[in-house]
Structures are given as structure tokens and as C-alpha cells.
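Input (structure):
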């Protein structure tokens, strides 16, 4: 039997990655384990230091990749993180880049209590399409999908679209196993 796909859900902080990943894990036609990479970094101490000014951890990428490699190799994973370029190309079956209007994004980050400098940097990153460019330069174009994430309608439509993709993936991999 084919393992489940490896889906990377990425985007600027505040674009809805975790909400999308949780809903996708619930609605997926194949079992998918949701891994919030930021939480994993904190739980497993996969960081070098905590940056007070930015209120974020400096991730030890080697430790993180070593931790994820055996999990990802089994498949059936949703990796949810604000960056994707550190993940090896061979890991990903689908890379979903969530996008959000920068004024909505500003409000979301403000509600989270982010420092102004961090809100400004993330807002600028969204406007400049930093995460989208990163995904497009790190993975084959046919597996990178850009989706708007501005409200509940987008969320539901995006999850439904990814579920359709998973069904197609399942069919392709079931056929491949029989030949």
C-alpha cells in the first residue's frame, strides 16, 4: 500500500497555515499527521538560541532535519512552517503557499501581540512574495500551489481543493503499486 503524501503548508506568519493543516488532517481521505514545525522546534530543543528582539527561536536546521527525516520518510505528513526551502526537494509531494492581503495580515499579527518590527518585517515579506519565491525556487513548479487565505470561505475551498489533490495522488499511487 502506498504511503500518504508529504504536504508542506507554508506562508508568512498569520496566513492560516496551522488552521489549514489541522482541517486538512481531519478531512483527508488518507491518514495525515500534522506537524507544526515551530512547536516541534520548541518541544525538542531544535534551536540554537531564543532571540528576544524578534521573539523567535534561531532554529538548528541540521537537528531539525535529522528529527524530521525518519518521520517524513514514512509519508502521510503535513509540515506546517513559515519557510520551506530547508526541506529537501525529495520530501515534498505538494507545497501549498498561503497568501493573504497585507492589511488583513497586519491585523492578524497585531492580535497575536507581535512586536511592531516583527509585524512590519512579516508584512513586507508577504508583499514581496518572499515565501512564494522561496517555494518556487526550491521545488518543481508543478508541485507548488499558491492559495489565497483571507477568510473561512478561502479556508474551506482550499482544504477541499487539497483533498481533491490527495484523492488524485492516491489513485496515481495505487495504480503504480499494482503494475
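Output (sequence):
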Amino acid at each position: 500500500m502506498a504511503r500518504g503524501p508529504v504536504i508542506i503548508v507554508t506562508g508568512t506568519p498569520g496566513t492560516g497555515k496551522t488552521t489549514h493543516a489541522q482541517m486538512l488532517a481531519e478531512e483527508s481521505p488518507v491518514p495525515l499527521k500534522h506537524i507544526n514545525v515551530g512547536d516541534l522546534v520548541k518541544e525538542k530543543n531544535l534551536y540554537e538560541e531564543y532571540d528576544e528582539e524578534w521573539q523567535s527561536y534561531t532554529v538548528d536546521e541540521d537537528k531539525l532535519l535529522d528529527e524530521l527525516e525518519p518521520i517524513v520518510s514514512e509519508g502521510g505528513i503535513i509540515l506546517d512552517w513559515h519557510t520551506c526551502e530547508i526541506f529537501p526537494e525529495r520530501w515534498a509531494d505538494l507545497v501549498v503557499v498561503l497568501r493573504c492581503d497585507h492589511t488583513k495580515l497586519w491585523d492578524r499579527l497585531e492580535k497575536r501581540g507581535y512586536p511592531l518590527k516583527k509585524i512590519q518585517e512579516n508584512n513586507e515579506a508577504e508583499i514581496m512574495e518572499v515565501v512564494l519565491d522561496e517555494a518556487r525556487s526550491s521545488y518543481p513548479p508543478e508541485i507548488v500551489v499558491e492559495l489565497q487565505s483571507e477568510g473561512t470561505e478561502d479556508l474551506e475551498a482550499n482544504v477541499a481543493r487539497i483533498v481533491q489533490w490527495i484523492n488524485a495522488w492516491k489513485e496515481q499511487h495505487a495504480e503504480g503499486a499494482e503494475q
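Notes: Residues 126 and 139 are 19 Å apart (CA to CA). Helices lie at 17-27, 37-43, 61-74, 102-111, 116-127, 130-138, 152-178.
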